[in-house]
Hints:
By secondary structure, this protein is α/β, with parallel strands linked by helices. The protein has helices spanning 12-15, 24-38, 64-88, 110-118, 136-146, 180-185, 193-201, 216-221, and strands spanning 4-9, 43-48, 93-96, 105-106, 122-125, 151-156, 177-179, 206-210, 228-231.
Amino acid sequence: MYKRVLLKLSGESLSGEGGKGFSEKTLTYLVNEVKKIHQLNIKLGIVVGAGNIFRGKELKDFRIQMADQLGMLGTVINSLYLKNVFESNGLKSIVVSPIVNLPSVMPLKYDFIEQCFEAGYIVLFGGGTSNPLFTTDTAAALRAIEMNADILIKATKVDGIYDKDPKLFEDAKKYDNITFEQAIKEQIKVMDTEAFSICKKNNLSILIINFFKEGNLLKAVEGENIGTKVNY
Ligand SMILES: Nc1ncnc2c1ncn2[C@@H]1O[C@H](COP(=O)(O)OP(=O)(O)O)[C@@H](O)[C@H]1O
Ligand SMILES: O=c1ccn([C@@H]2O[C@H](COP(=O)(O)OP(=O)(O)O)[C@@H](O)[C@H]2O)c(=O)[nH]1
């Protein structure tokens, strides 16, 4: 079983697949899935995307650096939203972010987040990497290494990594394992090359799972053979 886990959730895990905003049904599902792993007493960090609010590239009339700042703020909104939902359901959590100065958001300090983990808090890392031109996959890789995670779990809308996009090709074949080198060389779109590269350099395995299949998150944390594992 993994003991220190960084979970990357897409914005769509708050809105429902393909949706915008927040869906009560999806949030209830999310809370139940997170509860199952939180009760195993693992140290849990979460990086959430903002696809349910803004993705920089979707704002066509904006300069990218401006659009991306809206995207990053979206991740802080989602983190605060999740904190509230978690706490109404008895899950203690804290939002940390280097990009905003708000009373409910704490600065990112390693000793402080370690104390939060020890006290059983889920740490929500908001604000992406703090830089435009990146995505929350890359933020997840950075924060995973900063919190000494033993796995980065990307919970998304496909069952893992395939030899081609399974949403476009019915005959796509799933990999159970793939090396960082292959993922980078084949330019696998399910995660950014930057994220693969940071994890490769720091020897941190990535597990891609389908968030929308009940029980998957628990299976992943317990080390069951699901999804696709990326390592050396
Ligand atoms: N080789 C591949 N294997 C798996 N998924 C792929 C592949 N190529 C493209 N994709 C697409 O990547 C998507 C997941 O990436 P992305 O939309 O960035 O996730 P998220 O929003 O969860 O961060 C999937 O919906 C899938 O259609
Ligand atoms: O380090 C980062 C992380 C995110 N973003 C912006 O925030 C948006 C939301 O993140 P992402 O697309 O990764 O969300 P997801 O698809 O996971 O919901 C991105 O499109 C970018 O515009 C950014 O500029 N820098």
